[in-house]
Design goal:
single chain; five-stranded antiparallel sheet; 63% helix; alpha+beta; 5 strands
């Protein structure tokens, strides 16, 4: 118990000395040991790395999980060392609603069929998003958190220790300075009057005491300087390790870009497949005044394949070696024309398609080789391609 009390008193004394030194420095009443410019640059670089890492980490979490409540829940699970429950993505939830709507509204109706197709595509998009979130969390977020919760905490601890060592060093310097000033005063101002020999004896005794105090302060200063230099070297090595942290974060950033590229490529393929299923093919049809997309000057085979039109155009219906026929020149077959009622308004994507109004009646027929999701529609002297999903075929 006696030892603990002594240690407690010693710690309290050290804390009080540091507090006094810090306060006097703030008010400009004490000198402060300055670190060299290179060390200050390392400190500023480390602080900047920490601040921007925190911002990038938080915003990436927002990107991967926009719902703040869900982010808080995942944070609590991580702090409690419990497994985060599997969460349905927004795309998968939308797919579930669409599938249930199709089942209730009629899976055989045009609207129901379309809902089922879109639901399948949204489900694939949700699965791709889940994989992207998983890969980004492992390859990008985890290294950033490891730096903030591991390396940076170590750096912060050593910096605080260096700050305390610096306060101890400056306090020893101030103590030595005061001791030397008092010793000089006691030595240079003795009372040599013979009528007052007692003053001379007291002055000589005070000089000896201050001499001992100077020796003690010099010894404490040497110890404080050694501890400060040792701690400064340890902190410098940790701060120089920030360069390795940058290299590691650079590699993780490349992996994040790769996973994001893969995710968006999968989304593009899924949506392109959905367009083909719905009959809305991107590309140039006969009669279009402008191409759907500008020509690519140089693309890789993969990119070129991905950006090619996904469905057959009217021009592709013509036999090889013959000029493509315009819709105005295509005669309806002698048999096979039917009446159809338009279910919904439809805006033509280009001049090869026929704009439709809900509840109007048109004549429709198919040509050999046409996609089954499309028909040729006629209204008066106007003719164009129409999607089957917008029609109710009559007898």
């Amino acid at each position: 118990m006696d030892f603990n009390m002594k240690k407690l008193a010693s710690d309290a004394g050290i804390f009080f000395t540091r507090a006094v030194q810090f306060t006097e420095e703030k008010f400009g009443q004490a000198e402060k040991t300055e670190l060299d410019a290179q060390f200050e640059n390392l400190l500023a670089r480390a602080d900047s790395t920490k601040n921007w890492t925190e911002k990038i980490l938080r915003q990436t979490e927002v990107l991967l999980q926009p719902n703040p409540s869900a982010r808080v829940e995942e944070f609590l699970y991580e702090k409690l060392d419990r497994k985060v429950p599997s969460r349905v993505t927004n795309g998968e939830l939308l797919a579930q609603y669409m599938a249930e709507a199709a089942s209730e509204l009629g899976p055989t109706t045009p609207y129901g069929k379309t809902l089922i197709k879109v639901a399948e595509a949204e489900k694939r998009l949700g699965a791709a998003e889940r994989d992207f979130i998983h890969m980004a969390s492992i390859g990008f977020l985890t290294p950033l958190r490891t730096f903030l919760e591991g390396d940076w905490k170590t750096i912060s601890k050593e910096r605080r220790l260096l700050h305390n060592r610096r306060l101890d060093l400056d306090a020893c310097k101030a103590r030595l300075k005061k001791a030397k000033a008092a010793e000089a005063k006691a030595t240079t101002v003795p009372d040599f009057q013979e009528t007052r020999p007692r003053n001379y004896i007291l002055s000589a005794s005070a000089s000896a005491l201050w001499n001992d105090e100077v020796d003690k302060a010099e010894q404490e200063l040497r110890v404080a300087q050694t501890e400060f230099d040792r701690q400064a070297e340890v902190t410098r090595l940790l701060l120089e390790g920030i360069s390795s942290t940058h290299v590691n974060h650079l590699r993780c950033l490349h992996e994040f870009v790769e996973s994001q590229t893969t995710y968006y490529a999968q989304c593009y393929r899924h949506m392109l497949d959905l367009q083909k299923q719905l009959g809305r093919f991107p590309g140039t049809f006969v009669g279009t005044t402008e191409p759907a997309s500008p020509p690519l000057s140089s693309t890789s085979p993969t990119t070129a394949a991905a950006t090619m039109p996904g469905g057959p155009s009217v021009a592709s219906l013509a036999p090889p070696g013959e000029a493509a026929l315009h819709l105005e020149e295509v005669a309806p077959p002698a048999s096979g024309t039917r009446k159809a009622r338009v279910l919904y308004d439809y805006e033509a994507a280009d001049s090869s398609e026929l704009a439709l109004l809900a509840d109007e009646l048109i004549t429709v027929y198919s040509l050999p080789g046409m996609d089954p999701d499309w028909l040729i529609g006629e209204r008066g002297n106007k003719k164009g391609k129409v999607p089957v999903t917008y029609l109710e075929l009559l007898s």
